[in-house]
Fold these 4 entries.
Entry 1:
Amino acid sequence: MESGLMVAVFGAYGHTGRFVVARLRERGFVPVLSGRDADKLKAMAYESGLEARAASVDDPASLDRALAGAAAVVNCAGPFATTAAPVIEAALRAGIPYVDVAAEVEANHDTFTHFAARARDARAVIVPAMAFYGGLGDLLTTAAMDDWTTADEAHIAYGLDSWHPTAGTRAAGVVSRQRRDGRRVRFANGRLEYRDDAPPALEWTFPEPMGRRAVIGEYTMADVVTVPSHLPIPDVRTYMTAEAARDLSSPDTPAPVPADDLGRSAQTFLVDVVVRSGGVDRRAVARGQDIYAVTAPLVVEAVDRILSGRIRTTGVASAGEIFDAADFLRSLSPYISVALHR
Ligand SMILES: NC(=O)c1ccc[n+]([C@@H]2O[C@H](COP(=O)([O-])OP(=O)(O)OC[C@H]3O[C@@H](n4cnc5c(N)ncnc54)[C@H](OP(=O)(O)O)[C@@H]3O)[C@@H](O)[C@H]2O)c1
């Protein structure tokens, strides 16, 4: 769709924000660059020829100015524990859809808890975690379910060959650890559970060529909020390849560096989703390159579908609920290749 519609991007000059801005342009939108640092915005506006509007989450009027005339806002500025609520409030005041890329379990949970009723009453659209973590896993789980309306378990295994985290990922991790008071979280028995024990060290058999790998079990990602927000699955477990978990926990792992002309790093991923009902498994598998870069086609496809009315509900909704999951996944080619085994 060559819409020419303006889409505000808060956190535009961040690592993920830059991929989102580039993808919005490719899809015919006009990004409006926003964020808290006027100098970084000015530099990006100079490079790109796009309009920049500085704004702070502590100053609602500045956010209103940033969103003026925009058809939607994408929030790429994390930690979302700080940015999500003020930017959602601004989107509600402007009467425009809000989409974010939050990976923080608690921040995503807060978005559902604090805004569900108001968004539903206003027929507003708020899509949290419309990103690699949270959004993609939910789309895959929903597509794997097919005609099932319930399942006993969902397992989402992240097969990352490495994980070079950005400063934003590290900052989000710090905030999440503080909010958990040193505990870990998992989704079991239909609710988020906070625990003091160590997560299980397991093995997971990924589709070839990755094969059997050491993983950290209950390596809890945003999918434990997005999936149960609309699918009655009492156990939603996420897993992470041990080498990627080690990369993230090491303070010395460098940030991602571009390795191709799209600016993507060399990191590859495989997301292996198994839903289980009555002992029967259904599976969805996604493969691609660079978890940060791939967030951009996910976000921009979501914005395009929202603005062209291809949605199934309003209110606060995750990707799997608001979109036709299988159709959405098909549209992500060539960025993500997906196989459904139902
Ligand atoms: N769910 C997923 O799969 C997924 C994928 C990609 C990214 N993310 C999340 O998105 C966030 C950004 O990641 P990134 O890779 O783009 O990191 P990044 O390159 O470090 O960028 C972080 C951005 O957030 C901005 N920011 C931080 N605190 C802010 C505040 N209080 N007000 C306004 N702006 C603020 C930063 O601005 P300054 O430079 O001014 O500090 C910067 O623009 C992280 O929380 C990350 O976890 C999630």
Note: The chain has two domains: 6-131+295-325, 132-291+333-341.
Entry 2:
Amino acid sequence: MWVTDAALTPATDADLEVMREQLGRPMRGVVGIAARCACGNPTVVATEPRLPDGTPFPTFYYLTHPGATAAMSALEATHVMRELADLLADDDEIASRYRAAHEAYLADRSVYGDVEEIAGISAGGMPTRVKCLHAVAAHALAAGPGVNPIGDLALERSSWSPARCTCANPRVAA
Ligand SMILES: [Zn+2]
């Protein structure tokens, strides 16, 4: 089972600093941390649907953890991407749950404002395609198992696990 919180936790100054190291740039428009590594470092950040400079930003759940992003990039380079796309095309139940995941994603984001330019647009190819495993895995980590079937499968197939810290700079337990 994935260890995740459905609710956001506040992004502390330490979280913002860790994300700056993870991404190599400051993360803008942060509204909270949606999932964390076993050590407590941010794994998924939630961002405003409109960034402070006015840019619409559909990816409400953004994967920041280097171990997780590398694992998803590695999966995207394999046949797994095609397998998941085929599964979505062939399995009505998965397709239905993926559409529901898309709706849940939009509902989560709308709490932070409705942005006309990205209305009805979620992330990762939802609701009918598999385009970015980082985005669907981020949603699965944020929402917990059973919400985003493609994200759940991507995490199952991946070499990375939220239960095992691989951070270069693990957080010292508070
Ligand atoms: Zn860690």
Note: The CA atoms of residues 50 and 170 lie 31 Å apart.
Entry 3:
Amino acid sequence: MPVPILLYHQIATPPLRKTPYRSMIVSPESFRRQMGWLKRLGYQGLSLRESMPYITGRKTGKIATITFDDGFTNVYQNAMPILQEFRFTATNFFVSNQIGGSNEWDRPLGVLPASCMDIEQIKQWLSAGHEVGAHTMDHVHLSQISEKQALEQLSLCREKLQTLTGDAIDSFAYPYGDHNDKVRELVRQAGYTVAGGTERRRATANDDLMNLPRLTIRRNDTWLHFLSKCLRR
Ligand SMILES: [Zn+2]
């Protein structure tokens, strides 16, 4: 059974005025409704790690994988209580040089500043049963830097998160969905076992584990958009 891997960024009240990438900010109310629909349809929301047996076909069940990119504090504040309420788990992909920092990589694009979780919050994220994934040290375009730099971005991020959490870091997400053959090979070399991209469909056992498709959920997705992404793509 194909597994929808949902991709969120920020869970917060979106700014009223038009700002770049405002569509990536989903309100807590919408997020709660979306989790509610999953529950009512009989889906269990799981982190990427816990979804792997279902994605690879070793287990069957109605599963939706819940992922967040960038490690925003508003996910800790606004999404974590809702996940707990529904007994769902999720994966957040952290930018290791911005732990306790902010979305500096977004600033040249005119995106409003938003803080990233600090160490204490990441530890609580983990102890609530969620997964810590990696998203490079500096949120870089991996195909646009040298091989050596790319491997460093991948390996040092993994090492830092492992030291910080005391847990194995297996899951990775490509910043900007940017990758190619070489980059995927480097991700494997850095020790990750699974990586999420941005191809828009559900995941199946035939998918390359270094490029799992994910479905971006946007601010103004209606319930129909949301359900058709989960059920049909
Ligand atoms: Zn990102």
Note: The longest strand covers residues 63-69.
Entry 4:
Amino acid sequence: MATALAKAAEGAASTEHAARIEHVSKSFAGPAGQQLVLDDITLDVAPGEFVTLLGASGCGKSTLLNLVAGLDKPTAGRITTDGRPALMFQEHALFPWLTAGKNIELALKLRGVPKSERRGRTEELLELVRLQGSYGKRVHELSGGMRQRVALARALAQDSQLLLMDEPFAALDAITRDVLHDELTRIWAETGLSVLFVTHNVREAVRLAQRVVLLSSRPGRVAREWRVEIPQPRRIEDAPVAELSLEITEVLRGEIRRHGQH
Ligand SMILES: Nc1ncnc2c1ncn2[C@@H]1O[C@H](COP(=O)(O)OP(=O)(O)OP(=O)(O)O)[C@@H](O)[C@H]1O
Ligand SMILES: [Mg+2]
């Protein structure tokens, strides 16, 4: 038994990835014909890895994330993921007629968790995002930060290996965002999830990630990537975070200049 398990783990390790994006291109039909948005993107996310995808507005970050989520198909290339990913967007997309707890329970129900286990599991998830006691709160009674915590708990309820996040904290004030960065880093470390996190905020990318991947614009290509060795927990105002952010910003500015955006 132990040998079989060890073998399985060994076999898995050689091909294991949470997401594999291979030579992916995406075009959309526009007024001037086909518009190439993503051009030959190759990128892997390792199991348990935290990767941020950084790029100027309109460079194709959401398009790529949607492809990884399976919401759309690439024009060319291939995407494989370890199971079905969970998604979290800038807009919380909670059902306003359901309570915080019921929003989470619905995700458990959809993945077939028996009714008798749902309430307990929901309470655990609420605790994980530090919203214990908020089961019965309605969405309109929650602050923006609390809503994003519920949305995160709901994403975690899907029990996916891969969490895809598209600017989930962009609409929050700086202090709330800071707290949620800490929470996300803690939850990532506790759960061993793989995260692909989209942002156009350089400091946020550096604050969170083990690896920052910079996309160029028009078309989106992998311009450069950085491994972030700064130990966690980091603060957005830490000197090494600021230093690396400055370096990345310079490259990003160059990319934006080259493509005539502002
Ligand atoms: N369904 C679609 N049909 C046509 N064009 C699209 C579609 N989705 C995205 N695009 C175009 O693809 C480009 C990239 O859009 P995308 O939303 O991926 O950018 P983004 O990097 O996420 O930008 P932002 O930071 O502003 O969210 C844009 O020019 C957009 O107009
Ligand atoms: Mg976007």
Note: Residues 1-15 have pLDDT under 50 and may be disordered.
